[in-house]
């Protein structure tokens, strides 16, 4: 007699270096699904395919079916099965459920607590649903994973604080200005860091951006990509009074923004705070500008320190999150187990039309 | 069973809710989690309703707005601050402001309830049936409640300013609203408080001009001083000459001055008409 099981099999950034993950990344999910539909005993399947992981979540009749999934996948990727087994992740039952909960919550991410993975898991589930390869068990598993992820993100500090320099800079701006929609941002310097920070501001709602660089053509190019204005670099001292945030990231050997220039700017806008972000090395802004009223100056070290503090704080929350997720995974697994034991034949295989199995979905309080 | 509660018992219940709001917020901070703004808002709302009932019972018994002794003035000040928070708390989505407001509510109500001497004597019909004087007193104390909320917002501003200047943004500081939002709220609250106090003094001055001996010099000087501080601070802020930290400290000083002036206000009352201790009024 066969024994239905929930499984996850795949490779992640923990054991597979980037060059291996490149080989394992799935190019055509449609083609792979077609191949997998031939695997006997496979009832349900969903694929999570991101830059840090390729994982198959599924329900199958027995462990041999899991081996078949592995074989089909390796054959399609032209990856040796023996090599794959050395780096693979393979879990079943409650552990598989717990793993998805942790992935969706960002606990298993390279950047612990990051939010992007939640959307990626949602997309993976939507794609599997659309292809008709999910059934009662996976539907319940993914829905519970989303609930669990939302719960830990709300009730723990796993997602609090940014961990990249550009995002920390944007967070600083929100601490000063709140909504960034009407916050004016001037970026001095057209290098990668300046451009990245400008993009971060744009993505978080800042609409009024301007770029200035020693080379006007390059500044215009960067500004064009951001939908920003271009400002003459030589006229920066005149312009800073009009902006709420000034990001400096030039390669200048000496400071390009003096305290006297900032003082003059503040006289024109005494009631409005000014955030100066100095991402350059050597520094672009005279450090004594920090002493001025309503001026907040942060340099690269300050931002790096905040990012590191946030990262450590997130790490410290991992154990608490795991505890919360483990309870939920146990509860879910108990219900799924009962369901699989009572109606093994009703779990739907990939490609089979949605039907009676959906009506039998286990109702859990997890 | 609840209808048998005395005004003070209702007010104790209100103080309990404000304290629960404060404790819930503190527990969230200690756990390192997020303060639940909705929970605190509802807790304050429950306390506010109970306090309204308590003050209503007291008002019926005293035949007017319950501002007859220090206990009632503190209670009314707390109630005024809560009224305004419940109005602005919805739009100004700051769970931290709710946390501090519940702290202020708990502090003012428990302090006034814990000092029996403040409520040892109750004065009835203190406004002599003159609705203008009653309006004058109610507006003046309401403006003090606004200044209480202004003081809280200013304290939050100073915390946020400190966190940004000292580059400590994690932990508790991460729950603070932005410095620009706090500055805007400070300005609006000061404007509201100053306007209410101006109206209160205008109504009072009409009564005072008819009989100047009716109002003690000390009370007159203290309340006018509070109004002057508020008006000057507002003028300087609007003209851009009192900003940032200095403005926040001035707002804190304004509330301290308002609280100190309450003693002078209370002493200037008419003679006691009805000494009562711990009576049950319904």
Encode the helix/strand succession of chain B as letters: HHHHHHHH
Q: Name the CATH superfamily classification of the largest domain in chain A.
A: Glutamyl-tRNA reductase, N-terminal domain
Structural class of chain B: mainly alpha
SS field, number of helical segments of chain B: 8
Shape of chain B: globular
Number of structural domains of chain B: 2
Structural class of chain A: alpha/beta
Looking at the chains present, what oligomeric state does this protein adopt?
Answer: heterodimer
- Main-sheet strand order of chain A equals 7-6-5-8-9-10
Question: Mean pLDDT score of chain B, rounded?
Answer: 84
Helix content, binned percent of chain B: over 70%
Tell me the number of helical segments of chain A per DSSP (H or I, 4 or more residues long). Answer: 14
How much of the sequence lies in strands of chain A comes to: 15-25%
Describe this structure in words.
The complex is a heterodimer of chains A (366) and B (282). By secondary structure, chain A is α/β, with parallel strands linked by helices. Chain A has two domains: 5-159 and 314-359, Glutamyl-tRNA reductase, N-terminal domain (Beta Polymerase, domain 2, 2-Layer Sandwich); 165-308, 3-Layer(aba) Sandwich (Rossmann fold), CATH 3.40.50.720. In chain A, 50% of the residues lie in helices and 15% in strands. Chain A contains 14 helices and ten strands. Chain A is elongated. Chain A starts with a strand and ends in a 7-residue tail after the last helix. Chain B folds into two domains: 1-126, Four Helix Bundle (Hemerythrin (Met), subunit A) (Up-down Bundle); 131-270. Chain B is built from eight helices and no strands. The longest helix of chain B is centred in the middle third of the chain and has 35 residues, at 131-165. Mean pLDDT of chain B is 84; it is low at 271-282.
């Amino acid at each position: 007699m066969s024994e239905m099981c929930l499984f996850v099999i795949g490779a992640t950034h923990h054991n597979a270096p980037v060059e291996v993950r490149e080989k394992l990344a799935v190019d055509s999910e449609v083609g792979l699904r077609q191949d997998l539909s031939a695997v006997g005993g496979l009832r349900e399947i969903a694929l999570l395919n991101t830059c840090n992981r390729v994982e198959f979540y599924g329900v199958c009749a027995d462990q041999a079916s899991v081996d078949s999934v592995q074989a089909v996948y390796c054959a399609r990727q032209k990856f040796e099965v023996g090599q794959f087994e050395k780096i693979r992740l393979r879990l079943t039952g409650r552990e598989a459920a717990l793993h998805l909960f942790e992935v969706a919550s960002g606990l298993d991410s390279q950047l612990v607590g990051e939010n992007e993975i939640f959307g990626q898991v949602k997309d993976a589930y939507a794609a599997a649903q659309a292809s008709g390869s999910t059934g009662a068990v996976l539907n319940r598993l993914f829905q519970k994973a989303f609930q669990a992820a939302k719960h830990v993100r709300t009730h723990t500090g796993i997602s609090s604080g940014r961990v990249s320099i550009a995002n920390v800079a944007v967070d600083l701006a929100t601490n000063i200005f709140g909504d960034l929609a009407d916050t004016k941002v001037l970026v001095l310097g057209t290098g990668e860091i300046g451009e990245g920070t400008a993009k971060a501001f744009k993505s978080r709602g800042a609409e009024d951006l301007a770029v200035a660089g020693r080379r006007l053509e390059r500044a215009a190019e960067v500004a064009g990509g951001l939908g920003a204005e271009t400002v003459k670099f030589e006229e920066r001292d005149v312009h800073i009074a009009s902006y709420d945030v000034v990001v400096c990231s030039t390669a200048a050997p000496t400071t390009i923004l003096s305290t006297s220039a900032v003082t003059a700017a503040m006289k024109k806008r005494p009631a409005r705070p000014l955030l100066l972000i100095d991402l350059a090395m050597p520094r672009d802004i005279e450090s004594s500008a920090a002493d001025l009223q309503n001026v907040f100056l942060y340099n690269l070290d300050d931002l790096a320190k905040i990012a590191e503090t946030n990262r450590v704080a997130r790490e410290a929350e991992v154990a608490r999150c795991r505890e919360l997720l483990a309870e939920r995974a146990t509860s879910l697994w108990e219900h799924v187990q009962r369901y699989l034991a009572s109606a093994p034949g009703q779990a739907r295989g990939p490609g089979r039309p949605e039907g009676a199995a959906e009506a039998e979905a286990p109702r859990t309080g997890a | 069973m609840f209808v048998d509660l005395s005004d003070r018992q209702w007010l104790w219940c209100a103080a309990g809710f404000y304290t629960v709001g404060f404790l819930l917020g503190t527990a969230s901070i200690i756990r390192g989690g997020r303060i639940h703004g909705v929970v605190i808002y509802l807790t304050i709302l429950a306390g506010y309703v109970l306090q309204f009932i308590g003050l209503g019972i007291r008002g019926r018994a005293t035949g007017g707005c319950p501002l007859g002794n220090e206990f009632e003035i503190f209670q009314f000040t707390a109630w005024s601050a809560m009224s305004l928070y419940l109005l602005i708390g919805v739009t100004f989505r700051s769970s931290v402001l709710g946390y501090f407001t519940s702290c202020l509510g708990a502090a003012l109500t428990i302090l006034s309830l814990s000092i029996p001497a403040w409520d040892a004597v109750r004065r009835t019909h203190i406004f002599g049936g003159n609705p203008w004087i009653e309006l004058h007193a109610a507006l003046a104390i309401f403006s003090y409640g606004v200044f209480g909320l202004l003081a809280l917002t200013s304290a939050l501003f100073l915390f946020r300013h400190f966190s940004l200047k000292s580059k400590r943004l994690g932990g508790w500081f991460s729950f603070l609203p932005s410095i620009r939002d706090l500055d805007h709220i400070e300005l609006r609250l000061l404007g509201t408080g100053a306007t209410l106090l101006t109206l209160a003094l205008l109504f009072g001055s009409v009564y005072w001009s008819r009989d100047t001996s009716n109002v003690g010099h000390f009370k007159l000087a203290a309340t006018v001083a509070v109004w002057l501080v508020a008006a000057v601070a507002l003028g300087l802020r609007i003209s851009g000459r009192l900003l940032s930290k200095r403005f926040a400290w001035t707002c804190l000083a304004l509330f301290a001055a308002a609280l100190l002036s309450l003693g002078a206000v209370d002493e200037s009352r008419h003679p006691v008409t009805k000494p009562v201790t711990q009576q049950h009024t319904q």
